[in-house]
Amino acid sequence: MESAFLGVPDVNVWLFFGLTVFAAFTAFVGIATGAAGGLLMMVTLATIFPPVISIPLHTVVQMGGNTSRIFFMWKYVMWPVLLPFILGGIFGGILGANIFISLPIAVLQGLLGLFVLIFLWMPSMSQIGGRQSRFAIVGFFATFLGVFVSATGTLVAPFVAAEAADRRNHVATFSTLMAIVHVLKLIAFGFLGFALAAYLPLMLAMVASAIAASYVGSKALNYMKERSFRTIFKTICTLLALRLIWIALGIEI
How many domains in the chain? Predict the structure, then answer.
């Protein structure tokens, strides 16, 4: 069996197309749940590739899918939160790039899971302070932690949920903010010397399938009940946060 399909190292034809389909699946799940797609993809990629490949690959694919949702759902984006989030994210990316190998991943995962549970189940905590300062802080930590653990959407999601009046506002704004995070992370990875040229065919295929699924998902969201979306979102985020904590504690699940 060929182990370098289209020149992609250690990826045969079955894995190539399997990951392409999986990218579409996680993109649709991300819209339906409001958060879970990115972490689901990261967990899967981490079982196949080493971190030096899985984290940048995850970043590129998620950036492509999230960016497409901005175009599909632009009228639902909560634009006022973007600038403070970007400013905070820039500082987070700079700091993360400078101490990339200095912090234990398990500690970061445990803290991330803990904070998600606090903000998710104590909604008033996700509305402390002014909106601009709040999203600047969220942008900082989402990008900073994203350099290490990549999938930080579960941290951003509770703050978006607290602001969003409608599921479409949530998905559109969340996707926009995460696209920003991934762009800033890619810049940080460039300074860290990550090289993914050999994986370009796989990235293009996964991004294309994620964009197609995002379009379908954005249409399907119109038919989803608001209460169902909120319930699924809260349940999925809770499970993902608990999983991060269990991993940090060394518990196999």
Answer: 1
